Structures are given as structure tokens and as C-alpha cells.
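User: C-alpha cells in, sequence out, please.
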């Protein structure tokens, strides 16, 4: 069985979904929202996120904006949230794989989105950023293990989304990095929460403060990724692992992943609120404007 669950919503429906996200609550407080129909196309179709479920109950969720290296925009976040809200109630679901279309997993926050933040006051930016995080971190609502198939570069917030997954398979030559500091921006999207829990405090502090970029092979060596394989093998390897999980007892797997996430997610609300406030202040700094300009002029 294959179920297409494209995040196909009209603009008004997407706005309703965004309105359901509490401005200052954590991921766990996200509203389950209205169930979405996978069999009826909406009047206006968004192709930013696709999702298919195979016969084993493994869902493959794909970020589908390869021309922009799957950069994270508010529209992509809304489409992603819509997909999660639809998928979480699918009874056949046993495991999920998250990947990106094209050569990148995700290049992180969209530059125009960041520029827009520099034109907005800090209070409003704090609210916007919490909502932005929540849309993508809604993957933690899925009641099954989520495996990040990091098929290519994962930078900044893109790497944070991979970190929020339960397991990670990465391309050997992929470039990864929490590059916020290099841009002049406080880390966000749960970076300060999940990174120390995965890497330990020393390595996490190093990479968050330096913005150092590392390879997929290095990610495996430091314990961030379970396996580093050739780029073409990333999704098949992740799917094979997901299928193995899907063959186990759904009750045992579901309750186990819930127990594991309870430990990982303890304090996430406070972490996201702190990151949002700190990023809101970063947007008012000259350092960030210079960082964005340098990227646009290809000086970095």
C-alpha cells in the first residue's frame, strides 16, 4: 500500500494551522489540529513536502524545494506541520524516514526569512521564532521512531531538525554544521537542547560556539550519526532500518520511543523560549546583517 499525503492545503487552511500553534508554548503543547484527508486534493496544492507510506508502514517524508536546497521558510514549516498532523493519525504507520530532495537535506533558515526578522521588533520576533521552531519540531509528535536520512548538506536549523529525529543516517561527504555563530545568530530550533544530549557538553559547546563544519563521516565518528554511507545509499539504508523497526511489536516500539523522548524532551519548552528570545536580540545586531551580506556576496 502506498498512501500519498502531500501537504496540500489552501493558504487559509495553512493559516488556521499556524494559528493553532501557541506563541510561547513548547512542542508538546502543539494542537493536534484538524485531521487532513490524504484522498482528496485541496483546491490549491503545495508541493513543498511529500509523504508516502509503503506496505511495511514506513513513511518517507521529503522536503521538496531542491532549487533552494530545502531552505526552511514559514511556508515549508506550515506544509511540514500539516503533513505531521495528517500522518500521526495514520493507523498503518510504524516508522518514518525524513530526507530532502536533491543534493541537500536542508541548508537551514531561508536568508529572506532572516532578513525579514531584522526589520521586525524583538517581541514579535520572539513569538515568530517559537512558532517557526514548533512547525518543524512537530516531528516529535509522531508516535513512531523518525530516522533522519541526511542525504546531503545539513546546515544550521536544517541540522537541528535532523538532531530532533530519533536516529540519523548520513552521507559520508555531506557537510554538516551548527553555523549560527558564524552568521552572528544565537542557535535556535532546539540546538542548545538536543546537541549536548547527543554529543555531550564538550563537543556540543565546541560546535555551537565555533560554527565549525564537519563531514558525515566525522558525524558518525563523534556519535551524531548511526551510520555514514554513500549518498545514494542514505535513504535505502534508513528505510531498511525503519522496516526492521516496523516488524517489531507496535506497542513495544511506540511505548519505548515515548519513554526515550520523555528524557530527551525534558525542559524543551524552556530551551525553545530562551533560544527564541536570544535570537530576537541577535536580529537587531550589526553582526547578523554582516553575516547575511557576506553569504549573499559569497564571502563565506
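Assistant: Sequence out:
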Amino acid at each position: 500500500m502506498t498512501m500519498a499525503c502531500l501537504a496540500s492545503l489552501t493558504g487559509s487552511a495553512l493559516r488556521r494551522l499556524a494559528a493553532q500553534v501557541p506563541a510561547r508554548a513548547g512542542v508538546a503543547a502543539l494542537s493536534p489540529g484538524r485531521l487532513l484527508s490524504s484522498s482528496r486534493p485541496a483546491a490549491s496544492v503545495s508541493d513543498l513536502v511529500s509523504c508516502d507510506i509503503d506496505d511495511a508502514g514506513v513513511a518517507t517524508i521529503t522536503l521538496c524545494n531542491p532549487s533552494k536546497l530545502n531552505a526552511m521558510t514559514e511556508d515549508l514549516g506550515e506544509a511540514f506541520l500539516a503533513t505531521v498532523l495528517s500522518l500521526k493519525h495514520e493507523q498503518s504507520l510504524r516508522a518514518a524516514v525524513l530526507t530532502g530532495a536533491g543534493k541537500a537535506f536542508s541548508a537551514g533558515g531561508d536568508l529572506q526569512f532572516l532578513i525579514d526578522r531584522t526589520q521586525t521588533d524583538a517581541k514579535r520576533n520572539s513569538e515568530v521564532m517559537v512558532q517557526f521552531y514548533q512547525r518543524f519540531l512537530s516531528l516529535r509528535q509522531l508516535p513512531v521512531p523518525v530516522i533522519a536520512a541526511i542525504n546531503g548538506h545539513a546546515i544550521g536549523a536544517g541540522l537541528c531538525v535532523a538532531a530532533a529525529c530519533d536516529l540519523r543516517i548520513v552521507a559520508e561527504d555531506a557537510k554538516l554544521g551548527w553555523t549560527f555563530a558564524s552568521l552572528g545568530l544565537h542557535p535556535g530550533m532546539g540546538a542548545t537542547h538536543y546537541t549536548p544530549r547527543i554529543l555531550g557538553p564538550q563537543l556540543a559547546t565546541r560546535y555551537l560556539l565555533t560554527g565549525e563544519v564537519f563531514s558525515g563521516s566525522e558525524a558518525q565518528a563523534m556519535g551524531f550519526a548511526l551510520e555514514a554511507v554513500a549518498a545514494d545509499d542514505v535513504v535505502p539504508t534508513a528505510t531498511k532500518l525503519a522496516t526492521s523497526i516496523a516488524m517489531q511489536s507496535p506497542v513495544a516500539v511506540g511505548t519505548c520511543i515515548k519513554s526515550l523522548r520523555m528524557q530527551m524532551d525534558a525542559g524543551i519548552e524552556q530551551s525553545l523560549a530562551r533560544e527564541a528570545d536570544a535570537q530576537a536580540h541577535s536580529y537587531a545586531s550589526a553582526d547578523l546583517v554582516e553575516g547575511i551580506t557576506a553569504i549573499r556576496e559569497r564571502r563565506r
